[in-house]
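name: query_chain
kind: protein
chains: 1
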Amino acid sequence: MTITAPSGRTVLEEACSTVGLRAEGAEALRIAENQVWRIPGRVVVRISRPGQMRAAEREVRVARWLAGNRVPVVRPVDVDQPVEAAGHPVTFWEELPSHEPGTVMDVVAVLRQIHALAAPTDFELGRLDPFVRLKTRIEGARTLSADDRAWLEARRVDLRAGWAARPPGSPECPVHGDAWVGNVVRTADGLTLMDLERFSVGPPEWDLVSTAVKLRTTGSITAGEYAEFCRAYGVDVTEWEGYSLLAGIRELRMVTYAAFHAARHPEWAAQAQHRVDCLRGRGGPRPWRWRGIM
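structure:
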């Protein structure tokens, strides 16, 4: 369940007190499934959902491991973390300098580094699960009809069965898990990778599909940009026999994300319904030109 801004501030103050940081003047940057705040000292605080302490611990360890392997990544603040405050895991990160969104070529540059790494030996990355929170999102998508929710749940079940029997692809390796242009930014010093919540071991095709659906599903990149992405990585994932399956899972994640948050943000309800309609064959052929909701 998403926490509200007032309770989030209470969590923030408790967590900051625990590690000796100041919460006065904190600014909410993002209030969604997780909360992100800025506090004095150029520190960004991430408040995760209850029950996610192990994931938060792994995220901090992943960031330090990637930095040790010269992958450009957001840096954890040098405090004893994560901490738990009012049941929520809380982590602390160095605020980025002035930056701009990355490009598909920035994404592929980072993916080539990540996919070339061997998994760490001193902690477990865990296995990729692309169905995390999907059932919860569907159940909470109260702007949708019961029929639409039932259809999405049946789609989830079918895709999960397909995932278990997916065709072979490239050898599994460390994957980011949510590799799109919103999670790579460019500063004056170069690239920075963000949002390590889904970092795990899995098929590299999952990371590549995130860019492929930007062309084929949403039409948010051009054919030329995608061709350049494929040349840089050396593979076109749309030519792999498992592409439709993984693209279907990624599409379902995008639809349920919008639908879940539309329950609290009515201004997103039309976009959420449009995405469902597209999946159900009511929106014409791909690409569907979906708009972002955040």
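note: Residues 271 and 292 are 8 Å apart (CA to CA).
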